[in-house]
Specification:
about 290 residues, mainly beta, Cathepsin D, subunit A, domain 1, 2 domains, eleven-stranded mixed β-sheet, 5 helices, 25 strands, about 10% helix, globular, Peptidase_aspartic_dom_sf, Retropepsin-like domain-containing protein, signal
Length: about 290
């Protein structure tokens, strides 16, 4: 994510009738991707990321497609730290019939896992709309704000609050502990901080090593892994759920380092459909199976 001035720079618009939905696939990296068209360049499978206030391109993709990069730079804040990045002004970008012009995309270094993803699509494309993120069915849709998709009418509407870069947060309960969760579909695995870990009784001496978290900035942070019980958000209860535990720098950036906090990732949505109305700041969840 970058600062809010760049978030405001993109001109968001529905330039054509919204499509019914687009397929959502899981890339070799484990991320959820959707087809995104860039005028004059082509259509490619981008990571669909509610945890990115602005979109980004990976440097190998920029080089392969001769995308012009300006001289301006900006600070990119990722889960594991902040780096200075170059910026590319993109032509019209479209997903599911929903378009934006003036997107200022950060240029990211090549992924350390070698997966040739083109980039990340963030709130500067869909932050003025409803995002229907249906991982169990492998599809996504962008709808007009105020729309409640079919099948979600009875789901509880959870009030969300904005944090850095206008990312949305919701309350999540683990047992009798309440935590603040940033909704981040760009995170393959959910992360919690140690403030929350200690409150729910996790002991670092008893946990196995988790994966190395690198995020968009490729700055490694080690984690521990655990399974936690009785996770509740909206109408959904997960009897058991996986987490990585680490005090990531982004918790400080979000201003929640001193309180129980979660980066709510894709693994908690394997059997759950999620619908986010960004302008209304409302989120609905429904268990639909897999």
């Amino acid at each position: 994510m970058r600062g809010t001035p760049f978030f405001a720079a993109a001109l968001l618009a529905s330039a054509s009738p919204l499509a019914a939905e687009v397929p959502m696939a899981i890339a070799a990296s484990g991320h959820a991707t959707v087809p995104v068209a860039i005028d004059g360049v082509g259509t490619f499978d981008f990571v669909l990321d509610t945890g990115a206030s602005e979109s980004a391109l990976y440097d190998p993709f920029v080089a392969e497609h001769d995308i012009p990069v300006g001289e301006s730079e900006d600070q990119l804040v990722g889960q594991t730290g902040a780096v200075t990045v170059r910026i590319a002004a993109l032509p019209r970008v479209t997903m599911d019939g929903h378009s934006a012009e003036g997107i200022m995309a950060a240029i990211l270094d090549a992924r350390p896992d070698g997966v040739p993803l083109p980039g990340i699509i963030g709130l500067d494309l869909f932050g003025d709309a409803v995002l229907d993120f249906d991982l169990p069915r492998g599809r996504a849709a962008i709808l007009e704000s105020g729309t409640v998709p079919e099948g979600m009418e009875e789901a509880e509407s959870v009030a969300a609050a904005p944090t850095l870069g206008e990312l949305l947060t919701i309350p999540v309960h683990i047992g009798d502990v309440e935590a603040l969760a940033v909704i981040d579909t760009g995170a393959r695995k959910t992360r919690i901080n140690w403030r929350l870990g200690h409150l729910i009784g996790l002991d670092p001496s008893t946990l196995d090593a988790g994966e190395t978290i690198q995020g968009a900035t490729n700055m490694p942070v080690e984690s521990l892994e655990a399974r936690i019980a009785d996770v509740r958000f909206g109408d959904v209860t997960l009897a058991e759920a996986p987490v990585l535990v680490a005090d990531l720098p982004v918790f400080e950036a979000f201003g929640v380092a001193d309180r129980p906090a979660i980066i709510f990732g894709m693994d908690w949505l394997e059997a759950v459909r999620m619908v986010i109305d960004f302008p209304e700041r409302r989120v609905r969840f429904a268990v639909t199976g897999r």
